[in-house]
């Protein structure tokens, strides 16, 4: 009896230790001139310890992300409490609080997307402008063993956003840039209907603007010129806002 309990106890410790050792460390780094409010949406796997934080300029924050996990990170900008409700001019998740509590970001928003594999397997990640752009960001894998090249979208799309795609903030400045799909909701921009395959949904004059600014990011739904980045070996990741 005693021996069985000891073995069981050892197994529990071993499971805890090894599952703990398989988690990845994500460092969120705010290089922007003002605060951003990073948010996290888990699409599969266990929820993280937080779904949203405030990150002052030049600050960083470290999170444990378990493998297997997939989900997305984005940053909210120009946030404030309005009548007791937390609101952001870009990337808001409409939770009324800093945590997003399982809600996604309202586009346009720059996304950092991840699928982490268990057992030092192959992780996949990308930067997506398919839902538009709100701020530049980069993803740098650290300590991985295979592939593992960083991807970056460091251009400020807001400065070159065509007027018909611009989202203006409360002070009248451009705070985000819609994708053409968001702005016009037409099949050729959204890759829906008869445009619903990679072969029938070519780049458009609008997606080409995003592509020219951020060649490493997905500029529209079937942007096959952008390889999904990957990394094996149980890497950690650094996400920098305004790299
Ligand atoms: C893109 O093409 C559409 C359709 O031809 C045109 O109406 C629009 O002005 C173009 N926009 C830009 C930014 O080139």
TrEMBL record:
Keywords: Signal. InterPro entries: Osmotin/thaumatin-like_sf (IPR037176), Thaumatin (IPR001938), Thaumatin_CS (IPR017949). It comes from the Eukaryota. Residues 1-23 form the signal peptide. This is Thaumatin-like protein.
């Amino acid at each position: 009896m005693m021996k069985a309990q000891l073995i069981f106890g050892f197994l529990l410790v071993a499971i805890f230790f090894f599952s703990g050792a398989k988690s990845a460390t994500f460092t969120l780094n705010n290089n922007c001139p003002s605060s951003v409010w990073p948010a996290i949406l888990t699409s599969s796997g266990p929820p993280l310890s937080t779904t949203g934080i405030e990150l002052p300029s030049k600050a960083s924050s470290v999170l444990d992300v378990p493998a297997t996990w997939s989900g997305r990170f984005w940053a909210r900008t120009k946030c404030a409490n309005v009548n007791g409700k937390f609101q952001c001019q870009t990337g808001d998740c409409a939770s009324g609080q800093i945590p997003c509590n399982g809600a996604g970001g309202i586009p346009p928003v720059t996304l950092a997307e991840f699928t982490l594999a268990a057992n030092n397997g192959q992780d996949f990640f990308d930067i997506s402008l398919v839902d538009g752009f709100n701020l530049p960001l980069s993803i740098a894998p650290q300590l991985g063993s295979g592939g593992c090249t960083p991807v970056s979208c460091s251009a400020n799309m807001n400065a070159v956003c065509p007027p018909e795609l611009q989202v203006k903030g409360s002070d009248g400045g451009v705070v985000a840039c819609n994708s053409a799909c968001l702005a016009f909701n037409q099949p050729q921009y959204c890759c829906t209907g008869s445009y619903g395959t990679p072969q029938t949904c070519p780049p458009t004059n609008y997606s080409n603007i995003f592509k020219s600014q951020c060649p490493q990011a997905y500029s529209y739904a079937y942007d096959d010129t952008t390889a999904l980045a990957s990394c094996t070996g149980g890497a950690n990741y650094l996400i920098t806002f305004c790299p």
